[in-house]
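Lecture notes, continued. The same structure-token format from the folding unit now serves as the input rather than the output. Read the line below as a description of shape only.
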């Protein structure tokens, strides 16, 4: 498997402006994410795709490989699809730039379905939630996913799914971890499609795949760390870095 990690990074962010350049223990957040990606055992290359000269400059100062992309990409997956057209690889993994604590084992776990004889169109990770995790289940910033018996995604939502009209102890909720691996062909097909109805309604780009008949294999992980979407998230991640460095 010839796999390349692509990290989409844009400067504008509605909830946390310029978060990619936020300081984390002396280095920009996007640099921290790039460093974690380099620790993958399955990927042969890590490239950051951005439309921001400021982000590109910050990364290149640390020796990162950067590809400049159009400012008109409608989502991160479209941005990496543009970069992928210039790269020879079988599989591309989309790692969000705001994941400075991503565990390299999760990157490799997401890529493993493509080592099988019958690889999926796309793979991603899910994390099992317990009943006491009701705050996450109800939180629209936490994306939930419903699986079929084969581990393929049936639906992703910001709402609590499945809805429990009747409460069964065996009902399993999963939180989606926004890490995706695509075959090269499927990635380009995705980028050629217009945003779908459900994608726009939920503001979840992976729904474009499901609405157009592609399968998404969901791999369960028990390892997860917080990403950075809000000022509160940034404070938490900074606290984790301080604890790690003993400050």
């Amino acid at each position: 498997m010839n796999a390349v990690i692509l990290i989409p990074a844009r400067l504008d962010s509605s909830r946390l402006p310029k978060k990619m350049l936020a300081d984390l223990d002396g280095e920009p957040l996007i640099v921290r994410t790039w460093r974690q990606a380099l620790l993958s055992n399955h990927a042969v290359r890590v490239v950051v795709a951005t439309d921001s000269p400021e982000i590109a400059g910050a990364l290149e100062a640390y020796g990162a490989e950067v590809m400049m992309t159009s400012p008109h990409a409608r989502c991160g997956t479209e941005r990496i699809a543009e970069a992928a057209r210039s790269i020879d690889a079988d599989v591309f993994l989309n790692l969000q730039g705001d994941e400075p604590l991503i565990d390299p084992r999760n990157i490799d776990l997401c890529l493993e379905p493509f080592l099988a004889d019958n690889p999926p169109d796309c793979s991603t990770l899910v994390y099992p939630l317990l009943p006491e995790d009701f705050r996450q289940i109800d939180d629209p910033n936490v994306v939930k996913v419903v699986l079929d018996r084969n581990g393929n995604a049936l639906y992703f939502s910001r709402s609590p799914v499945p809805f429990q009209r009747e409460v069964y102890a065996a009902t399993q909720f999963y939180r989606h971890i926004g890490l995706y691996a695509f075959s090269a062909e499927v990635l380009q097909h995705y980028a050629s499609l217009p945003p779908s109805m459900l994608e726009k309604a939920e503001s979840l780009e992976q729904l474009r795949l499901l609405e157009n008949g592609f399968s998404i294999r969901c791999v369960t992980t028990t390892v997860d760390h917080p990403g950075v979407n809000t000022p509160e998230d940034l404070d938490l991640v900074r606290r984790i870095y301080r604890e790690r460095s003993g400050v």
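Point for the exam: Residues 3-245 form a domain with the Spore Coat Polysaccharide Biosynthesis Protein SpsA; Chain A fold (CATH 3.90.550.10).
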